[in-house]
Amino acid sequence: MGRHLGPVCVLCRREGMKLYLKGERCYTPKCAIERRNFAPGQHGPTGGGRRKPSDFSTQLREKQKARRIYGVMERQFRSYFHDASGRDGVTGQTLLQLLELRLDNIVFRLGFATSRRQARQLVAHGHFTINGRRMTVASVLLKPGDQVSVRESSRKSAYFQSLLKELTNRSVVSWLNLNPAQFGGAVVSAPTRDQIDTPVKEQLIVEFYSR
Fold first, then answer.
1. Which of 44, 147, 162, 193 is 20 to 30 A from 176 in CA distance terms?
2. CA 93 to centroid of chain Cα atoms
3. What letters, b where the CB count within 10 A reaches 16 and e where it falls short, cover 92-114?
4. Number of C-alpha atoms within 13 angstroms, CB side, residue 38?
5. What is the structure's pLDDT at 211?
6. What average pLDDT does this structure show over 96-119?
7. Span 11-22, mean pLDDT?
């Protein structure tokens, strides 16, 4: 399956909840869920008289929801699952932990982007460094102690300058540390499940791949 190139609001409507794929727009009345909170398609709000979803359908929808929230392709998501299943600990929780430690997610969590989609674009354009080294791969996994910073040449841009005041007053998740004055932050520790606020039932994803 290729990357979704159409309106991302359709993805939120398909999952029946806000996935916050468009940043600030998701907090306004223009959000698609606020205006048309039903699945897209020719049947409209009636749903065509669909029957109660099967266990497979429920598991699939949960997997798709997680993929879309983090912006991960199917093959890569499956790879994360196999990685998580081979590690110690609860597989579902480890899977979410790996997704949270992606560079694009951390850029988003630190407040340098209003959505993970925007964060991926900023990373791809080379605006960030990891431990002083320029990085353009959004999927790279960070570990505790890693430092993420906006490149010196990018800090003077209008976009990052406009963020400075907002970053000063921003609170971030407890497993990250934000340093607005240095346009950067650090990974303090790997997140635990209670530190991850993503509305996903990870056990359903484990059941989907364990069929």
1. 162
2. 15
3. bbbbbbbbbbbbbbbbbbbbbbb
4. 10
5. 86
6. 96
7. 60
